[in-house]
From TrEMBL:
Keywords, ordered alphabetically: Cell projection, Cilium, Flagellum, Repeat
Gene Ontology cellular component annotations, sorted alphabetically: sperm flagellum
InterPro entries in the record: MORN, Morn5
PANTHER family recorded: MORN REPEAT-CONTAINING PROTEIN 5
Alphabetized SUPFAM superfamilies for the sequence: Histone H3 K4-specific methyltransferase SET7/9 N-terminal domain
Name recorded for this polypeptide: MORN repeat-containing protein 5
Compartment annotation: Cell projection, Cilium, Flagellum
Entry keyword annotation includes Repeat: yes
Taxonomic lineage from the root: Eukaryota, Metazoa, Chordata, Craniata, Vertebrata
Length: 161
C-alpha cells in the first residue's frame, strides 16, 4: 500500500486481502465490500469523490453487474437511457426543477456552472490543461494524464474557460 498510495482496512487470509474491506485509492475513491485473493470479489460499492457511486457484483476484480448513481441521484440505465440524448436535451436538474425562462439557458447540470480557469476545459470530473494534458479534480488534485483520444474529445466537446 505504501507504494501505491492506497489504504486497506479489512481482513487478511494467508497475507492476502480477503473478506469484508474498505479500500481507499489515492484519488480518494473508496471501495467498500468484499475482497478475495487481493481483488474486489462479491458485492461492493465504489464511492467517488464527486459524490457518485457504483454498486456492483465483482468477479476477480471485474464488475460483472452494477448500477451507477450520479451525485444528484440520477441512476444510469443502460437499456432505457434517455437523459440528455437526441430526444430530450434537458439536464437532470431541469427535469426535476423545470426549465428556466427564455434567455437564461442552463449550461451544465450544476446551476450556476463552475468557473473554469482561463485556457482550461471542464471535462466533468475536473479541469483539463491542454498544454500539460493533465486532468486535476475540482480540488486541484491529480486525476490522470489525457491520451490523444481523450485530448481530442475534451477540446472538441467540453466547455472552455
Amino acid at each position: 500500500m505504501e507504494y501505491t498510495g492506497s489504504k486497506y482496512i479489512g481482513e487478511y487470509v494467508d497475507g492476502r486481502m480477503e473478506g469484508k474491506a474498505k479500500y481507499i485509492l489515492p484519488t480518494e475513491t473508496i471501495y467498500v465490500g468484499e475482497m478475495k485473493d487481493g481483488v474486489f470479489h462479491g458485492e461492493g460499492t465504489l464511492y467517488f469523490p464527486s459524490g457518485s457511486q457504483y454498486d456492483a457484483v465483482w468477479e476477480n476484480g471485474l464488475a460483472i453487474k452494477g448500477t451507477y448513481t450520479f451525485a444528484d441521484g440520477l441512476h444510469y440505465d443502460e437499456k432505457n437511457w434517455h437523459y440528455c440524448d437526441g430526444y430530450d436535451r434537458r439536464f437532470y436538474t431541469e427535469i426535476l426543477n423545470g426549465l428556466k425562462p427564455a434567455g437564461m439557458a442552463q449550461l451544465t447540470n450544476m446551476d450556476p456552472p463552475r468557473k473554469i480557469p482561463k485556457g482550461y476545459y471542464d471535462c466533468g470530473d475536473g479541469f483539463y490543461n491542454p498544454i500539460t494534458r493533465v486532468i486535476k479534480d475540482y480540488r486541484n488534485r491529480f486525476l490522470r494524464n489525457a491520451d490523444d483520444d481523450e485530448h481530442e474529445w475534451i477540446t472538441r466537446t467540453c466547455r472552455k474557460g
